[in-house]
Design a protein that fits this description.
It is a single chain. The chain is mainly alpha-helical. It has two domains: 149 residues, Farnesyl Diphosphate Synthase (Orthogonal Bundle); 204 residues, Farnesyl Diphosphate Synthase. It is built from 16 helices and two strands. A two-stranded antiparallel sheet has the order 1-2. A hairpin with a 2-residue loop joins strand 1 and strand 2. Helix 1 packs antiparallel against helix 2. The two termini are 21 Å apart. The model has no long low-confidence stretch (mean pLDDT 94).
């Protein structure tokens, strides 16, 4: 079965369980207070509106490779990693001042509109405040999903400890990237960019779900191979994400194109381009990065990234990282299976996707 069909099939099955879980939580939270149930409804609407569900699939694939047998329990654990992802996305949207997620309002914007309608208040801090709380609420829901998954208590404790370590790394990666965003582009270093995305994309996006699957299967014998797969595929994934951030289509990605430039992000695309352009073009980039650029300026930046050869180089780098990741799968001491095939296909998909 082609990967996209497999992803669609898994997503449909997974989303049914995710919706059941969230409806159950809405009903539970109604007993506490209607405001809590309302917040759960709002986060549920956002979560169910979009997302590829790559992370829950990665948990299941690693669990299967490690000999796990309980498909129902691992789907429930997948709900935990998806909601953890949504928790981080909610805060990421606030940090990046994004207003669109999955083709609709971010939670911050959703609450901003609520305050306008209910209280006739337009202070953006109000929506921001409840957007943060909604993100925290998603983190609590994620822990609920994991502890209610049905795995032994010892495995749950190991899983929580692992996810805590991942969150520490994510916090570090976010800070490295965020501080770099506020440096002049002339001082931005490729090494800082790579370290930041390795701690976020390599660890939280790919390695976190894979290792969680091994922990819950109580078998970490293939940990080393999956670690090398994660690190390399995660780097390739983030490079493609940066490319889509500058060259994607908002209708397809569900996110504003060019927002990385407006937020001052020193992506590899931007750092490498700056080093290659002439002095006048450097001044132009200095003037644009971190500013509310126009569509004309965005097109000029896109032209410089292409003309300098940086776009092509970053596309090739992403491919090289994915090749290294796939080679790590050859060292797995397991019989080739649907799981290993899907891991190979997912690696390719993550650097060829358009959203």
């Amino acid at each position: 079965m082609p990967l996209e069909e497999e992803l669609d099939r898994f997503k449909a099955k997974f989303d049914r369980q995710l919706e059941i879980f969230l409806i159950d939580k809405i009903n539970q939270h109604r007993q506490v207070d209607p405001v809590l149930a309302d917040m759960t409804k709002r986060v549920a609407k956002r979560v169910l509106r979009g997302g590829k569900r790559i992370r829950p699939l990665l948990i299941k694939l690693a669990y299967d490779l490690a000999g796990g047998k309980d498909s129902e329990k691992i789907i429930k654990a997948g709900i935990a990693i998806e909601l953890l992802h949504q928790y981080l996305l909610t805060h990421d949207d606030i940090i990046d001042r994004d207003q669109i997620r999955y083709g609709g309002d971010t939670l911050e914007v959703d609450y901003h509109k609520l305050f306008q309608k209910k209280f006739n208040k337009t202070d953006p801090h109000l929506g921001l405040s409840l957007g943060i709380i909604a993100g925290d609420h998603l983190h609590t829901l994620a822990l609920d999903a994991l502890t209610e998954s049905g795995f032994p208590a010892e495995s749950i404790i190991k899983a929580v400890n692992w996810l805590n370590q991942i969150l520490y790394d994510t916090v570090a990666g976010f800070q490295i990237t965020y501080f770099q965003n506020h440096l002049p582009i002339a001082k931005a270093e490729e090494t800082d960019y790579l370290k930041g995305i390795l701690l976020v994309s390599g660890r939280y996006t790919i390695e976190a779900p894979l290792m969680l699957g091994l922990i819950l299967a109580d078998n970490t014998s293939i940990k080393s191979a999956l670690h090398h797969y994660s690190q390399n595929v995660g780097l390739g994934f983030q490079m493609q994400d940066d490319i889509l951030g500058l060259f994607g289509n908002t209708k397809t990605t569900g996110k504003p194109v060019g927002n990385d430039i407006r937020e001052g992000k020193k992506t590899l695309l931007l750092v490498k381009t700056y080093k290659r352009v002439n002095s006048e073009e450097k001044k132009f980039l200095q003037k644009c990065v971190g500013k509310n650029i126009t569509q004309i300026q965005l097109r000029q930046i896109q032209h410089l990234v292409k003309k300098s050869g940086t776009l092509k180089e970053c596309q090739n780098l992403a491919k090289d990282y994915v090749k290294k990741g796939k080679r790590a799968l050859f060292t797995l001491k397991v019989t080739p299976s649907q799981a290993t095939t899907l891991l190979t296909d997912i690696a390719d998909f993550l650097i060829t996707r358009s959203k």
